[in-house]
Every structure is written in structure tokens, then in C-alpha cells.
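Lab notebook, bench 4. We co-purified these components, and the gel suggests they stay together. Before we commit to crystallization screens, I want a quick structural picture of the whole thing.
Request: model the full complex, all chains together.
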Amino acid sequence: DSGVTQTPKHLITATGQRVTLRCSPRSGDLSVYWYQQSLDQGLQFLIQYYNGEERAKGNILERFSAQQFPDLHSELNLSSLELGDSALYFCASSASLGAHYEQYFGPGTRLTVT
Amino acid sequence: QQQVKQSPQSLIVQKGGISIINCAYENTAFDYFPWYQQFPGKGPALLIAIRPDVSEKKEGRFTISFNKSAKQFSLHIMDSQPGDSATYFCAASLGVGSNYQLIWGAGTKLIIKP
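Here is the predicted assembly.
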């Protein structure tokens, strides 16, 4: 158990809908990262937050947005969903910016868009 | 220059054999090279990491070999076991000023045959 929690575990929704994925980092970790992993694919970095501020953006679509709250939990919002958005979405956390190579991953949210 | 190239894409090894996964990079500013292990349906987990001023690091059956001049690093799994069957990701860490990034390899799916 990494100490990172993600909810929900599974999500099934229809095209055009909007969903929110939630992540709670390990206790004390200030950095949160979001990744997308399609079936049998690699990890696509989406976005990073550090202590409430956006620090880095990867291949995140304009339909996707995220935020990190004062209690350090983070939410990833996916809107106008398309079939191709079906994937595993992982949240990871690290203690600090300097320890960003040491990321602790949550169990993921499996999103299915029908 | 920010890429990390990982090979092979997939690998089948007999139980008891040595599994070798290779990664190559271009950017000499990378400051840490972690390896992550991911089991199906789970989030990746940090396995072992090495700094560029160290040529080898061993943890149990897992060894990272690092060749700074060739800009290559590899993961060796000795006495490979069926429980080692997983996807392995190499990564390279970049921390310059306030810019921190973790660049991921594409992953290697390892199957250990009993």
C-alpha cells in the first residue's frame, strides 16, 4: 500500500459527459502528479501540482483540468468525454520537488467511456 | 533530447534466467535514474534508483548498471522468478532551477516462464 488513495476505483460513463477523479496523496507529500495509461500503453504524464500550485504540464487535453486543494488532495476533471479517453488514470505523490523521481502511485481509477 | 528510449518492448525469460532491460538517454543534465515495476491493474512502484556518479547499484536480485559515457543504463534481474512478471519502466529525472521533470521510458513487458 503506497499511502496514496484514489476514488472512485471504477467509473463508467457516456460520451459527452464530465467526471471528477479524486486523489489523496501520502501524508506529508506536497507534490501530486496525474498520469493516463491506456490499455497496454506507457504512462502519459498529464499535470503536476506542488503545494496547491500548478508546476508542470504534460500532454493534457484542454478538456481536462486539475487542481490541488489546501488540504493537498487533488481532483482531475475530464469533460466532453470521448471513447478514446477510456484509460487508467493514476495519481502519484512525492514528498518534495527535489524528490520528484521518487513517486508513490495510487491504485488508479479505471474510466470506461461508452 | 528529453527522451528516454527503452528496449525491448517485451521480453520472455525462463525461470532462473537473467532478465535485462536497457534504456538510453541524451540529456546529460539528468540527475537520477529510477526504475519502476508495475503489475497488471496496479500502479507503478519504485523499484530501485541510481545517480549518474555511481556505476552500479544492487538491491537483492535487482541491479542497475549505469554507463555514463554511453548514456545508457540497464536493469538486470538475476534468478528471474514468475513473480517478477510485470511491466518495467525506466525514467530519468531532471531538476534544473525550479523545473522538475521525470521523463519516462515506454515500458518493457517482462514474462518469466516457469
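The radius of gyration of chain B is 14 Å. Worth comparing against the SEC data before the next meeting. The mean pLDDT of chain B is 93.
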